[in-house]
Structure formats: C-alpha cells, structure tokens
Amino acid sequence: MNPPYGREIGAWVEKAARESRKPNTIVVGLLPARTDTSWWTNWVEPMAAEIQFLSGRVRFCINGVQQQSAPFPSALVRWGGALPKKARET
Fold it and tell me: What is the DSSP letter of 29?
C-alpha cells in the first residue's frame, strides 16, 4: 500500500497492522519514515515483521514524467508472514 501521507495515514497504518493478523495475510507499505509519530510507535515499530529504510529519497513518476524527490526519508514496512520482532523476543 502507498497511503495518503496526510493526517489520515495513521488510520491506514493501523488497518494494515490489524489486517495482517488474519491468517495468510501479508501487508507491505511504502511509508514516510516518521519514527517520532504515534502511528509509527503504535503500529509500525511493535507490529511490523520487517522494516527496511530506503537510502536516498523516493521519486515518483506521473504519466512518465519524473517528479521532485519526497522531502522526507521513506521505509518499506511488512506486516504478517512472521511474528513481529517484539513478539519473538518474549
């Protein structure tokens, strides 16, 4: 998923984390790496099976035209497919 990066992102990330608890479900999200937000600390850090921080800034293309780079770092986050890191430690 590539959720909208506005105020509604928290609801998207929460839904991804919750949906990944269903059997045979994996959700992967391209997210801004905003580790200081409540949605990150509540739904990414403790719930993700894998987090990969991307080097550089993501750049999208619209109708084949390359756009400016994102003004923030990004991460690929995977929920499901394995136990979250914190669950494996306990």
Answer: E
Question: Residues 9, 39: contact at Cβ < 8 Å?
Answer: yes
Instruction: Decide: 27 and 16 in contact? Cβ < 8 Å.
Output: yes
**Contact between residue 70 and residue 32 where contact means Cβ atoms under 8 Å apart:** yes
**Can you tell me which residue has the tokens 């929920």?**
79
Residue 83 one-letter amino acid? L
| Most distant CA atoms of the chain, gap in Å | 48
Enter the tokens of residue 27: 């959700």
pTM of the model: 0.82
Q: Is the pLDDT of residue 88 over 60?
A: no
Contact of 29 with 3, CB cutoff 8 Å: yes
